[in-house]
Amino acid sequence: MREAGCYHRPYMDKRAPLFLPLAISLIVVWISYWFFESRYALLDDTLIHLHYADMLYRYHFITFDGVQRGFGTSSLLYVSLLAFLRSFFSSALLAKAVSDVAYIGLIAAVLFEFIRLKRSPLSQLLLAELAVCLLSPMGIRWLSDGMETSLTNLAVVLLAVISHKEQQETRLSGIRFILLVLFGATLVFLRVELALILALCCVSILVAHLVAARNFVKAAINASPLAIGGVLAMIAIRLVMGSLLPDTALAKSARHFSFDPLRLTLQVMSSSLLLGLGTLACWIQSVFLSLRKILRTGRPLQPQLAGLLCENCAIFVVVGLSCLRGQVIQGVRYVIWPLVFGIIANALRMGTAPEPKRGTAAIDLTEKRLAQAFFLACLCILPIDWKLASHAMQGRSQTFLELRAANLGRMFAEKTIVASDVGYITYFTNGRMCDLAGLVNGRAMAAMTSDQRVAYCASRSPAMAFLTLGQIRRVDSAMGLNNWAVCGIFDFTNVRTDDRHYLIVPPQNADEVCHTLGFRPKTVAELVPPSP
Description:
Elements: E1 2-3, E2 6-7, H1 12-37, H2 44-59, H3 76-86, H4 94-116, H5 121-135, H6 137-143, H7 149-168, H8 174-190, H9 194-213, H10 216-241, H11 247-251, H12 260-271, H13 273-297, H14 301-312, H15 314-325, H16 336-352, H17 365-406, H18 409-412, E3 416-419, H19 423-429, E4 432-435, H20 443-447, H21 450-458, E5 464-468, H22 469-479, E6 485-491, E7 500-505, H23 510-517, E8 522-523, H24 524-527
Parallel strand pairs: 3-4, 3-5
Antiparallel strand pairs: 1-2, 5-7, 6-7, 6-8
Helix pairs in contact: 2-3, 2-19, 4-5, 4-7, 5-13, 5-16, 5-17, 6-13, 7-9, 7-16, 8-10, 9-10, 9-14, 12-13, 12-15, 13-14, 13-16, 13-17
Protein backbone atom coordinates (compact mmCIF):
# COMPACT_ATOMS: atom_id res chain seq x y z
CA MET A 1 0.00 0.00 0.00
CA ARG A 2 1.23 3.47 -0.88
CA GLU A 3 -0.11 6.85 0.02
CA ALA A 4 0.55 9.74 -2.32
CA GLY A 5 4.20 10.68 -2.16
CA CYS A 6 4.93 8.22 0.70
CA TYR A 7 6.43 4.73 0.50
CA HIS A 8 5.96 2.41 3.46
CA ARG A 9 8.16 -0.41 4.62
CA PRO A 10 6.62 -3.77 3.95
CA TYR A 11 7.57 -5.22 7.36
CA MET A 12 8.13 -2.73 10.19
CA ASP A 13 4.53 -1.52 10.50
CA LYS A 14 3.35 -5.03 11.35
CA ARG A 15 6.19 -5.69 13.77
CA ALA A 16 6.22 -2.29 15.47
CA PRO A 17 3.66 -3.12 18.22
CA LEU A 18 5.92 -5.94 19.45
CA PHE A 19 9.30 -4.68 18.30
CA LEU A 20 9.39 -1.33 20.12
CA PRO A 21 8.33 -2.53 23.62
CA LEU A 22 10.78 -5.42 23.39
CA ALA A 23 13.62 -3.20 22.17
CA ILE A 24 12.97 -0.60 24.89
CA SER A 25 12.84 -3.32 27.57
CA LEU A 26 16.18 -4.72 26.41
CA ILE A 27 17.70 -1.23 26.39
CA VAL A 28 16.51 -0.63 29.97
CA VAL A 29 18.05 -3.92 31.13
CA TRP A 30 21.30 -3.16 29.24
CA ILE A 31 21.65 0.35 30.67
CA SER A 32 20.81 -0.87 34.19
CA TYR A 33 23.56 -3.49 34.02
CA TRP A 34 26.20 -1.01 32.90
CA PHE A 35 25.10 1.66 35.37
CA PHE A 36 25.59 -0.88 38.15
CA GLU A 37 28.92 -2.00 36.68
CA SER A 38 30.19 1.60 36.45
CA ARG A 39 28.59 3.10 39.58
CA TYR A 40 31.97 4.15 41.03
CA ALA A 41 33.75 4.83 37.72
CA LEU A 42 34.47 8.56 37.61
CA LEU A 43 36.93 10.58 35.55
CA ASP A 44 39.50 12.65 37.41
CA ASP A 45 37.95 15.73 35.77
CA THR A 46 34.58 14.81 37.29
CA LEU A 47 35.86 15.42 40.80
CA ILE A 48 37.44 18.70 39.65
CA HIS A 49 33.97 19.86 38.62
CA LEU A 50 32.43 18.55 41.83
CA HIS A 51 35.04 20.42 43.89
CA TYR A 52 34.28 23.59 41.94
CA ALA A 53 30.60 22.99 42.73
CA ASP A 54 31.39 22.61 46.43
CA MET A 55 33.32 25.88 46.40
CA LEU A 56 30.54 27.64 44.48
CA TYR A 57 27.98 26.37 47.01
CA ARG A 58 30.10 27.64 49.92
CA TYR A 59 31.52 30.90 48.58
CA HIS A 60 29.09 31.84 45.77
CA PHE A 61 31.72 32.41 43.08
CA ILE A 62 33.79 30.17 40.79
CA THR A 63 36.92 29.22 42.71
CA PHE A 64 38.99 26.13 43.35
CA ASP A 65 40.53 27.14 46.68
CA GLY A 66 37.88 29.45 48.15
CA VAL A 67 40.17 32.48 47.80
CA GLN A 68 41.22 33.08 44.21
CA ARG A 69 38.69 33.42 41.42
CA GLY A 70 39.36 30.99 38.60
CA PHE A 71 37.87 29.63 35.40
CA GLY A 72 39.15 26.06 35.40
CA THR A 73 35.86 24.42 34.49
CA SER A 74 34.74 23.47 31.01
CA SER A 75 31.05 24.01 31.87
CA LEU A 76 29.76 26.84 34.02
CA LEU A 77 26.21 25.52 33.72
CA TYR A 78 27.16 22.02 34.85
CA VAL A 79 29.09 23.29 37.88
CA SER A 80 26.16 25.57 38.78
CA LEU A 81 23.75 22.64 38.51
CA LEU A 82 25.96 20.51 40.77
CA ALA A 83 26.26 23.39 43.25
CA PHE A 84 22.47 23.70 43.40
CA LEU A 85 22.07 19.95 43.97
CA ARG A 86 24.82 20.06 46.62
CA SER A 87 22.32 21.58 49.04
CA PHE A 88 20.34 18.31 48.83
CA PHE A 89 23.01 15.63 48.24
CA SER A 90 26.49 15.40 49.78
CA SER A 91 27.64 12.20 48.08
CA ALA A 92 30.79 12.11 45.96
CA LEU A 93 28.68 10.23 43.41
CA LEU A 94 26.37 13.20 42.78
CA ALA A 95 28.04 14.05 39.46
CA LYS A 96 27.81 10.41 38.36
CA ALA A 97 24.06 10.40 39.12
CA VAL A 98 23.52 13.61 37.15
CA SER A 99 25.41 12.29 34.13
CA ASP A 100 23.42 9.03 34.32
CA VAL A 101 20.14 10.97 34.21
CA ALA A 102 21.41 13.07 31.29
CA TYR A 103 22.48 9.89 29.49
CA ILE A 104 19.00 8.41 29.86
CA GLY A 105 17.60 11.69 28.49
CA LEU A 106 19.96 11.47 25.49
CA ILE A 107 18.93 7.89 24.66
CA ALA A 108 15.25 8.79 25.13
CA ALA A 109 15.60 11.77 22.75
CA VAL A 110 17.18 9.60 20.03
CA LEU A 111 14.50 6.91 20.46
CA PHE A 112 11.75 9.55 20.36
CA GLU A 113 13.06 10.84 17.03
CA PHE A 114 13.30 7.24 15.80
CA ILE A 115 9.61 6.71 16.55
CA ARG A 116 8.59 10.12 15.23
CA LEU A 117 10.27 9.53 11.86
CA LYS A 118 8.35 6.30 11.22
CA ARG A 119 7.57 7.35 7.62
CA SER A 120 11.27 7.56 6.79
CA PRO A 121 12.92 4.13 7.16
CA LEU A 122 16.26 5.54 6.02
CA SER A 123 16.22 8.13 8.81
CA GLN A 124 15.27 5.40 11.26
CA LEU A 125 18.22 3.29 10.14
CA LEU A 126 20.61 6.17 10.82
CA LEU A 127 19.09 6.80 14.24
CA ALA A 128 19.28 3.08 15.04
CA GLU A 129 22.98 3.13 14.14
CA LEU A 130 23.53 6.18 16.34
CA ALA A 131 21.66 4.48 19.20
CA VAL A 132 23.92 1.43 18.89
CA CYS A 133 27.00 3.67 19.21
CA LEU A 134 25.62 5.56 22.21
CA LEU A 135 24.50 2.32 23.90
CA SER A 136 27.83 0.57 23.37
CA PRO A 137 29.92 -0.16 26.48
CA MET A 138 32.39 2.53 25.44
CA GLY A 139 29.49 4.89 24.86
CA ILE A 140 28.19 4.30 28.38
CA ARG A 141 31.72 4.65 29.76
CA TRP A 142 32.22 8.12 28.24
CA LEU A 143 28.65 9.38 28.47
CA SER A 144 28.04 8.46 32.12
CA ASP A 145 31.41 9.25 33.68
CA GLY A 146 30.23 12.18 35.78
CA MET A 147 31.08 14.90 33.24
CA GLU A 148 28.68 17.06 31.22
CA THR A 149 29.21 14.95 28.06
CA SER A 150 25.71 13.45 27.97
CA LEU A 151 24.16 16.81 28.77
CA THR A 152 26.11 18.39 25.90
CA ASN A 153 25.04 15.72 23.43
CA LEU A 154 21.42 15.90 24.61
CA ALA A 155 21.57 19.65 24.05
CA VAL A 156 22.86 19.30 20.47
CA VAL A 157 20.17 16.71 19.70
CA LEU A 158 17.53 19.20 20.88
CA LEU A 159 19.26 21.96 18.91
CA ALA A 160 19.14 19.89 15.72
CA VAL A 161 15.41 19.28 16.22
CA ILE A 162 14.72 22.94 17.02
CA SER A 163 16.83 24.18 14.10
CA HIS A 164 15.01 21.88 11.69
CA LYS A 165 11.64 23.06 12.98
CA GLU A 166 12.67 26.72 12.72
CA GLN A 167 13.58 26.17 9.07
CA GLN A 168 9.96 25.17 8.44
CA GLU A 169 8.22 27.85 10.54
CA THR A 170 6.90 30.94 8.77
CA ARG A 171 5.92 33.01 11.81
CA LEU A 172 7.91 33.81 14.94
CA SER A 173 5.80 34.49 18.03
CA GLY A 174 7.10 36.53 20.96
CA ILE A 175 7.03 33.59 23.36
CA ARG A 176 8.93 31.36 20.96
CA PHE A 177 11.47 34.14 20.38
CA ILE A 178 12.15 34.38 24.13
CA LEU A 179 12.38 30.61 24.55
CA LEU A 180 14.85 30.35 21.67
CA VAL A 181 16.99 33.13 23.16
CA LEU A 182 17.05 31.31 26.50
CA PHE A 183 17.92 28.02 24.84
CA GLY A 184 20.78 29.63 22.89
CA ALA A 185 22.17 31.16 26.09
CA THR A 186 21.86 27.83 27.92
CA LEU A 187 23.90 26.07 25.24
CA VAL A 188 26.79 28.53 25.54
CA PHE A 189 26.76 28.36 29.35
CA LEU A 190 26.86 24.58 29.02
CA ARG A 191 29.96 24.69 26.82
CA VAL A 192 31.22 27.81 25.12
CA GLU A 193 32.23 25.76 22.04
CA LEU A 194 28.54 25.22 21.31
CA ALA A 195 28.42 28.82 20.10
CA LEU A 196 29.88 27.39 16.88
CA ILE A 197 26.92 25.05 16.36
CA LEU A 198 24.52 27.88 17.20
CA ALA A 199 26.07 30.09 14.53
CA LEU A 200 25.88 27.34 11.90
CA CYS A 201 22.25 26.60 12.80
CA CYS A 202 21.37 30.27 12.42
CA VAL A 203 22.96 30.32 8.96
CA SER A 204 20.99 27.22 7.91
CA ILE A 205 17.74 28.79 9.22
CA LEU A 206 18.55 32.01 7.35
CA VAL A 207 19.15 30.13 4.09
CA ALA A 208 15.91 28.18 4.45
CA HIS A 209 13.85 31.34 5.02
CA LEU A 210 15.55 33.22 2.19
CA VAL A 211 14.57 30.43 -0.19
CA ALA A 212 10.99 30.42 1.10
CA ALA A 213 10.34 34.18 1.26
CA ARG A 214 13.28 35.96 -0.44
CA ASN A 215 12.99 38.66 2.22
CA PHE A 216 16.35 39.11 3.93
CA VAL A 217 15.07 41.19 6.85
CA LYS A 218 12.32 38.74 7.71
CA ALA A 219 14.66 35.79 7.25
CA ALA A 220 17.29 37.40 9.50
CA ILE A 221 14.70 38.02 12.23
CA ASN A 222 13.59 34.39 12.11
CA ALA A 223 17.21 33.22 12.29
CA SER A 224 18.30 35.57 15.08
CA PRO A 225 16.90 34.30 18.43
CA LEU A 226 19.41 31.49 18.97
CA ALA A 227 22.26 33.80 17.98
CA ILE A 228 21.07 36.53 20.33
CA GLY A 229 20.98 34.08 23.22
CA GLY A 230 24.46 32.81 22.42
CA VAL A 231 25.92 36.33 22.13
CA LEU A 232 24.33 37.43 25.41
CA ALA A 233 25.77 34.39 27.16
CA MET A 234 29.26 35.05 25.75
CA ILE A 235 29.10 38.68 26.89
CA ALA A 236 28.05 37.56 30.37
CA ILE A 237 30.88 35.00 30.57
CA ARG A 238 33.42 37.59 29.43
CA LEU A 239 32.24 40.19 31.97
CA VAL A 240 31.98 37.85 34.95
CA MET A 241 34.90 35.49 34.33
CA GLY A 242 37.23 37.92 32.58
CA SER A 243 37.74 35.62 29.61
CA LEU A 244 35.57 33.83 27.11
CA LEU A 245 37.66 30.64 27.13
CA PRO A 246 38.38 28.78 30.40
CA ASP A 247 41.86 28.59 31.89
CA THR A 248 41.98 24.94 30.88
CA ALA A 249 41.94 25.95 27.21
CA LEU A 250 44.97 28.20 27.79
CA ALA A 251 46.85 25.60 29.82
CA LYS A 252 46.27 22.87 27.22
CA SER A 253 47.20 25.08 24.28
CA ALA A 254 50.66 25.22 22.73
CA ARG A 255 49.65 28.66 21.36
CA HIS A 256 51.04 27.85 17.91
CA PHE A 257 49.90 25.82 14.92
CA SER A 258 50.27 22.06 15.24
CA PHE A 259 48.90 18.94 13.57
CA ASP A 260 48.87 17.13 16.92
CA PRO A 261 45.13 17.80 17.52
CA LEU A 262 44.35 16.04 14.23
CA ARG A 263 46.41 13.03 15.27
CA LEU A 264 44.90 13.07 18.77
CA THR A 265 41.37 13.28 17.36
CA LEU A 266 41.96 10.14 15.31
CA GLN A 267 43.58 8.49 18.32
CA VAL A 268 40.71 9.18 20.75
CA MET A 269 38.18 8.15 18.10
CA SER A 270 39.88 4.80 17.56
CA SER A 271 40.46 4.15 21.27
CA SER A 272 36.76 4.65 22.04
CA LEU A 273 35.81 2.03 19.42
CA LEU A 274 32.04 1.91 18.83
CA LEU A 275 31.42 5.35 20.33
CA GLY A 276 34.18 7.03 18.35
CA LEU A 277 34.69 5.00 15.19
CA GLY A 278 31.04 3.91 15.09
CA THR A 279 29.69 7.44 15.36
CA LEU A 280 32.21 8.66 12.80
CA ALA A 281 31.14 5.90 10.35
CA CYS A 282 27.45 6.67 11.00
CA TRP A 283 28.05 10.39 10.38
CA ILE A 284 29.95 9.75 7.12
CA GLN A 285 27.15 7.46 5.98
CA SER A 286 24.51 10.07 6.89
CA VAL A 287 26.32 12.76 4.87
CA PHE A 288 26.65 10.46 1.87
CA LEU A 289 22.99 9.41 1.96
CA SER A 290 21.79 13.00 2.51
CA LEU A 291 23.82 14.23 -0.45
CA ARG A 292 22.57 11.33 -2.54
CA LYS A 293 18.96 12.10 -1.70
CA ILE A 294 19.41 15.82 -2.39
CA LEU A 295 20.81 15.08 -5.83
CA ARG A 296 17.89 12.76 -6.61
CA THR A 297 15.01 15.00 -5.49
CA GLY A 298 15.16 17.45 -8.38
CA ARG A 299 14.70 20.43 -6.02
CA PRO A 300 17.02 23.51 -6.17
CA LEU A 301 20.43 22.27 -5.12
CA GLN A 302 22.14 25.39 -3.74
CA PRO A 303 20.01 25.97 -0.60
CA GLN A 304 19.91 22.27 0.24
CA LEU A 305 23.66 21.90 -0.17
CA ALA A 306 24.24 25.04 1.92
CA GLY A 307 22.10 23.62 4.71
CA LEU A 308 23.89 20.27 4.52
CA LEU A 309 27.26 22.03 4.71
CA CYS A 310 26.26 24.16 7.72
CA GLU A 311 25.00 21.14 9.64
CA ASN A 312 28.05 18.98 8.99
CA CYS A 313 31.12 21.21 8.92
CA ALA A 314 31.39 21.75 12.69
CA ILE A 315 33.77 18.82 13.23
CA PHE A 316 36.23 20.30 10.70
CA VAL A 317 36.03 23.73 12.33
CA VAL A 318 36.54 22.28 15.83
CA VAL A 319 39.60 20.26 14.82
CA GLY A 320 40.92 23.10 12.64
CA LEU A 321 40.72 25.63 15.48
CA SER A 322 42.41 23.12 17.78
CA CYS A 323 45.25 22.82 15.26
CA LEU A 324 45.62 26.60 15.09
CA ARG A 325 46.04 26.77 18.89
CA GLY A 326 47.91 23.49 19.27
CA GLN A 327 45.11 22.45 21.64
CA VAL A 328 45.42 19.12 23.44
CA ILE A 329 42.45 16.77 22.86
CA GLN A 330 42.40 14.22 25.68
CA GLY A 331 39.18 12.31 25.09
CA VAL A 332 36.44 11.56 22.60
CA ARG A 333 34.02 13.76 24.56
CA TYR A 334 35.67 16.84 23.06
CA VAL A 335 34.84 15.88 19.46
CA ILE A 336 31.81 13.59 19.56
CA TRP A 337 29.07 16.24 19.80
CA PRO A 338 29.51 17.73 16.27
CA LEU A 339 29.08 14.23 14.85
CA VAL A 340 25.95 13.52 16.91
CA PHE A 341 24.50 16.85 15.79
CA GLY A 342 25.24 16.08 12.15
CA ILE A 343 23.64 12.63 12.29
CA ILE A 344 20.43 13.96 13.86
CA ALA A 345 20.27 16.91 11.45
CA ASN A 346 20.82 14.64 8.43
CA ALA A 347 18.21 12.15 9.62
CA LEU A 348 15.68 14.97 10.05
CA ARG A 349 16.52 16.39 6.63
CA MET A 350 15.97 13.03 4.93
CA GLY A 351 12.88 12.35 7.01
CA THR A 352 11.07 15.37 5.61
CA ALA A 353 12.47 15.39 2.07
CA PRO A 354 10.08 14.29 -0.71
CA GLU A 355 10.62 10.91 -2.33
CA PRO A 356 12.72 11.20 -5.52
CA LYS A 357 10.25 9.69 -7.97
CA ARG A 358 7.25 7.48 -7.99
CA GLY A 359 8.02 3.78 -7.78
CA THR A 360 11.34 4.15 -5.92
CA ALA A 361 11.65 1.81 -2.93
CA ALA A 362 11.89 3.31 0.55
CA ILE A 363 15.29 1.71 1.13
CA ASP A 364 17.27 0.78 -1.96
CA LEU A 365 20.00 -1.83 -2.27
CA THR A 366 22.90 0.58 -1.64
CA GLU A 367 21.33 1.92 1.54
CA LYS A 368 20.50 -1.59 2.73
CA ARG A 369 24.05 -2.85 2.13
CA LEU A 370 25.56 0.12 3.99
CA ALA A 371 23.35 -0.55 7.00
CA GLN A 372 24.16 -4.27 6.95
CA ALA A 373 27.89 -3.56 6.79
CA PHE A 374 27.61 -1.13 9.71
CA PHE A 375 25.73 -3.51 12.01
CA LEU A 376 27.99 -6.42 11.05
CA ALA A 377 31.07 -4.34 11.92
CA CYS A 378 29.45 -3.40 15.25
CA LEU A 379 28.89 -7.06 16.09
CA CYS A 380 32.54 -7.81 15.34
CA ILE A 381 33.84 -4.91 17.44
CA LEU A 382 31.41 -5.32 20.37
CA PRO A 383 33.41 -8.00 22.27
CA ILE A 384 36.55 -5.83 22.20
CA ASP A 385 34.51 -2.75 23.09
CA TRP A 386 32.93 -4.61 26.03
CA LYS A 387 36.26 -5.92 27.34
CA LEU A 388 38.10 -2.59 27.19
CA ALA A 389 35.22 -0.53 28.58
CA SER A 390 34.68 -2.97 31.45
CA HIS A 391 38.42 -2.94 32.23
CA ALA A 392 38.51 0.87 32.36
CA MET A 393 35.34 1.12 34.46
CA GLN A 394 36.48 -1.49 36.98
CA GLY A 395 39.89 0.13 37.30
CA ARG A 396 38.46 3.60 37.89
CA SER A 397 35.96 2.18 40.38
CA GLN A 398 38.76 0.54 42.34
CA THR A 399 40.72 3.81 42.43
CA PHE A 400 37.68 5.71 43.67
CA LEU A 401 37.02 3.19 46.46
CA GLU A 402 40.70 3.04 47.52
CA LEU A 403 41.06 6.82 47.75
CA ARG A 404 37.73 7.21 49.52
CA ALA A 405 38.73 4.59 52.09
CA ALA A 406 42.20 6.12 52.67
CA ASN A 407 40.72 9.05 54.62
CA LEU A 408 43.48 11.37 53.37
CA GLY A 409 41.69 14.47 54.62
CA ARG A 410 42.87 13.81 58.18
CA MET A 411 46.50 14.21 57.13
CA PHE A 412 46.46 16.69 54.23
CA ALA A 413 43.47 19.02 54.63
CA GLU A 414 44.53 22.62 53.90
CA LYS A 415 48.11 21.50 53.16
CA THR A 416 49.90 22.14 49.87
CA ILE A 417 49.86 19.24 47.42
CA VAL A 418 51.68 19.00 44.10
CA ALA A 419 49.86 17.05 41.38
CA SER A 420 48.99 17.08 37.70
CA ASP A 421 45.79 15.01 37.87
CA VAL A 422 44.14 17.00 40.63
CA GLY A 423 40.54 15.78 40.75
CA TYR A 424 40.63 12.69 42.97
CA ILE A 425 43.43 13.91 45.22
CA THR A 426 41.85 17.33 45.81
CA TYR A 427 38.41 15.94 46.53
CA PHE A 428 39.61 13.29 48.99
CA THR A 429 42.19 15.46 50.80
CA ASN A 430 40.65 18.95 50.63
CA GLY A 431 44.22 20.15 50.27
CA ARG A 432 45.57 23.31 48.61
CA MET A 433 46.50 22.20 45.14
CA CYS A 434 49.52 23.29 43.14
CA ASP A 435 48.58 22.02 39.70
CA LEU A 436 51.46 21.16 37.38
CA ALA A 437 49.00 21.10 34.47
CA GLY A 438 47.91 24.69 35.22
CA LEU A 439 44.19 23.93 35.08
CA VAL A 440 42.87 25.17 38.43
CA ASN A 441 45.27 27.77 39.86
CA GLY A 442 44.17 30.77 37.84
CA ARG A 443 45.02 32.29 34.49
CA ALA A 444 48.55 33.34 35.43
CA MET A 445 49.45 29.75 36.30
CA ALA A 446 47.77 28.48 33.13
CA ALA A 447 49.93 30.83 31.05
CA MET A 448 53.20 29.54 32.58
CA THR A 449 55.41 27.02 30.86
CA SER A 450 55.71 23.53 32.30
CA ASP A 451 59.13 24.28 33.84
CA GLN A 452 57.84 27.49 35.41
CA ARG A 453 54.97 25.60 37.07
CA VAL A 454 57.37 23.00 38.46
CA ALA A 455 59.62 25.72 39.93
CA TYR A 456 56.63 27.55 41.41
CA CYS A 457 55.20 24.40 43.02
CA ALA A 458 58.62 23.48 44.45
CA SER A 459 58.77 26.88 46.17
CA ARG A 460 55.47 26.20 47.98
CA SER A 461 57.03 23.58 50.36
CA PRO A 462 54.45 20.89 49.57
CA ALA A 463 53.39 18.34 52.18
CA MET A 464 52.65 15.70 49.57
CA ALA A 465 53.02 15.00 45.85
CA PHE A 466 50.71 12.82 43.75
CA LEU A 467 52.60 12.06 40.55
CA THR A 468 53.17 9.51 37.82
CA LEU A 469 56.62 8.09 37.15
CA GLY A 470 57.27 10.53 34.31
CA GLN A 471 56.12 13.46 36.42
CA ILE A 472 58.38 12.42 39.32
CA ARG A 473 61.38 12.45 37.00
CA ARG A 474 60.40 15.88 35.69
CA VAL A 475 59.82 17.37 39.16
CA ASP A 476 62.82 15.73 40.83
CA SER A 477 65.35 18.28 39.54
CA ALA A 478 63.46 21.12 41.21
CA MET A 479 62.34 19.39 44.41
CA GLY A 480 64.88 16.60 45.06
CA LEU A 481 62.43 13.75 45.51
CA ASN A 482 64.83 10.80 45.86
CA ASN A 483 64.61 10.79 49.66
CA TRP A 484 60.83 11.27 49.71
CA ALA A 485 58.82 8.22 50.76
CA VAL A 486 56.25 6.42 48.65
CA CYS A 487 53.20 5.80 50.89
CA GLY A 488 50.62 4.76 48.32
CA ILE A 489 50.15 3.60 44.75
CA PHE A 490 46.94 4.29 42.82
CA ASP A 491 46.19 3.37 39.21
CA PHE A 492 44.09 5.60 36.93
CA THR A 493 43.01 2.91 34.51
CA ASN A 494 42.65 3.79 30.83
CA VAL A 495 42.13 1.62 27.75
CA ARG A 496 45.84 1.30 26.97
CA THR A 497 47.58 2.06 30.29
CA ASP A 498 47.03 1.99 34.04
CA ASP A 499 48.57 5.47 34.50
CA ARG A 500 50.06 4.67 37.91
CA HIS A 501 50.24 7.49 40.47
CA TYR A 502 52.55 7.52 43.49
CA LEU A 503 51.57 9.28 46.71
CA ILE A 504 54.89 10.56 48.08
CA VAL A 505 55.71 12.63 51.18
CA PRO A 506 58.82 14.30 52.64
CA PRO A 507 61.00 11.97 54.77
CA GLN A 508 60.07 13.66 58.06
CA ASN A 509 56.40 12.67 57.60
CA ALA A 510 56.98 9.25 56.05
CA ASP A 511 56.49 7.00 59.07
CA GLU A 512 53.20 8.60 60.16
CA VAL A 513 51.63 8.79 56.69
CA CYS A 514 52.75 5.34 55.51
CA HIS A 515 51.62 3.74 58.78
CA THR A 516 48.19 5.37 58.49
CA LEU A 517 47.82 4.17 54.90
CA GLY A 518 49.14 0.68 55.74
CA PHE A 519 51.97 0.96 53.24
CA ARG A 520 55.53 -0.12 54.01
CA PRO A 521 57.59 3.01 53.33
CA LYS A 522 60.12 3.00 50.54
CA THR A 523 62.06 5.91 49.16
CA VAL A 524 61.40 7.17 45.67
CA ALA A 525 64.93 6.10 44.71
CA GLU A 526 64.16 2.50 45.77
CA LEU A 527 60.77 2.17 44.10
CA VAL A 528 61.10 4.35 41.03
CA PRO A 529 63.88 3.30 38.65
CA PRO A 530 66.14 6.08 37.38
CA SER A 531 65.49 7.45 33.94
CA PRO A 532 67.52 5.74 31.20
